Amino acid sequence: MSAQPSAESADAAHFDVVVVGAGFAGMYMLHRLRGLGLSARVYEQGSGVGGTWYWNRYPGARCDVESMQYSYSFSEELQHEWNWSERYAPQPEILQYANHVADRFGLRRDIQFDTRVERAAFDERRNLWQVATSDGKAVTARFVVLATGCLSNARKPDIRGLDRFKGPVYHTGHWPHHPVDFTGLRVGVIGTGSSGIQSVPVIAEQAKHVTVFQRTAQFSIPARNAKLTDEERSWFRANYPEIRRFAREEAKNGIYTELPDRGALDDGDNERRAKYEARWQHGGLTFMSVYNNLALDQAANDTAADFVRDKIVEIVRDPATAKLLTPGSYPIGTKRICIDTDYFATFNRPNVTLVDIKADPIEEVTATAVRSGGNEHELDALVLATGFDAMTGSVAKIDIRGRDGQTLNQKWAEGPRTYLGLMSAGFPNLFVITGPGSPSVLSNMIVSIEQHVDWISDCLVYMRDNAVAAIEAEEDAESKWVAHVNEVASATLYPQADSWYMGANIPGKPRIFMPYIGGVGPYRQICNDVAARGYEGFAMT
Ligand code: N01
């Protein structure tokens, strides 16, 4: 492996590693590769770094993991010099942080922006990946790392007539780079997941009227966002060693928080309610960590779900609207829980209407309206908060061919198959960062990204030191891992929900729980043990 790109032929550059994507995963991967003296080229379809934070610029977009924890830990200097302004950083600030990291570590010179990787084919004879990009060029690389993100393939719904709508149509995951002004406009928002729930209150403050089209009511917990004080930042900095260690090793989801020591039914009604109330007042994702069995036991889950349902009824003044906003068809937390600022209270505004498209599905979009249940909802602008083809969608867009010309899409036709979420048998020297079969979206993404990047980096060093040309997941190890991922998921309530975790939001997508729910600590230990045993379950040649 070389330190500099070398010309394999006159027209094809060669790199040790091609990385796809310059979000948080791709940026850190590049930084580590540089540190190892490897040559790398990152391809990024956007015009800048930041991945999800580059694309999702919708009003109200912010992270639902607290900013002091949703940040890289790999550089002591970085984590001490950057000042987060709020408990939950808004999208522009996270993007600024990504740009700061790119500048600080001089990453841009190895990133080619505005370029998609279209094809990657493994040349078995030479143990090389041939990579073709949207600029019509081709390069070769020993390794390809997919840092394509779990929620990066925005999904436009198949609604009849959508293309006929005369006004602007925005997808939250592809928001324009210029400010969008909704002043005086009648705006329709389709979708009430995290993106819809964050954007509706902000759009409602500006627009003349907002019509929210809801298919499934969502559980949402108040964020209680606030400015961070110097004292709070100092506390985090002083305690970072323990906070980061805990997030990596002990927390199930990569977030430093108090761990529950009992189940919901171990407390009496009053005590339980007081605990939920305290977490509701505290705000944020830790609501689901009040008890240790909320994801496992229906009766325990019901207590948390009922608490939130009661809150919705308390907040929303119109009983019919409150009833519609009250989720009932799935256990709380089994669709990704939302974190909001004034979402439910927004329905008390005179300029906000809720339309139940479960009862009255959208029939079509006309030039000026959305029609459902025979009613025409006249609109000037439309916001699609309809989510993503999650976890596999961005990988599937690339034509990836492994051994014997098999495509990854063929191999994953019945659902993604990976060993540890890191590699797929038949695709040597191809790594996925936070791939399906790893904790990924069930965790603080940056914790999981850093773990994968470090594991891959160590693996590359091992290969260099041991003169190994290719690494590949073994079929048997992969099958066992896939079975384990499914087994752990089926012991929980998660498979009950029609969620994007299950691929249920994409018509025709196999219904499989894609992330690994065993927790980031145990998962890290498994990955470390595999490496310590000479990369057990991987064939090295
Ligand atoms: O997407 P979603 P999202 N007709 O898939 C509805 C992360 N994230 O962009 O539930 C009508 O959750 C769909 O209805 P249903 C976070 O992990 C994080 O909001 O399928 N409606 C649903 O209401 C999150 O979970 C942050 O019945 C249609 C909505 O659209 C993930 O990204 C912020 C429809 C889609 O919800 C995805 O969130 C934002 C159709 N054809 C996102 N198709 C933070 O960090 C879909 N829907 C805070």
From TrEMBL:
| Pfam families recorded | Pyr_redox_3
State whether keyword Methyltransferase applies.
no
Keyword terms of this UniProt record: FAD, Flavoprotein, Monooxygenase, NADP, Oxidoreductase
Kindly give the InterPro entries that the UniProt entry links to this protein.
Answer: FAD-binding_Monooxygenases (IPR050775), FAD/NAD-bd_sf (IPR036188)
Q: Where are the transmembrane segments?
A: none
Required co-factor? FAD
Is-annotated flag, keyword NADP? Answer: yes
Q: Which PANTHER family match?
A: L-ORNITHINE N(5)-MONOOXYGENASE-RELATED (PTHR43098:SF3)
* Family per similarity comment: Belongs to the FAD-binding monooxygenase family.
Q: What is this protein called?
A: NAD(P)/FAD-dependent oxidoreductase
User: Which organism is this entry from?
Assistant: Bradyrhizobium jicamae
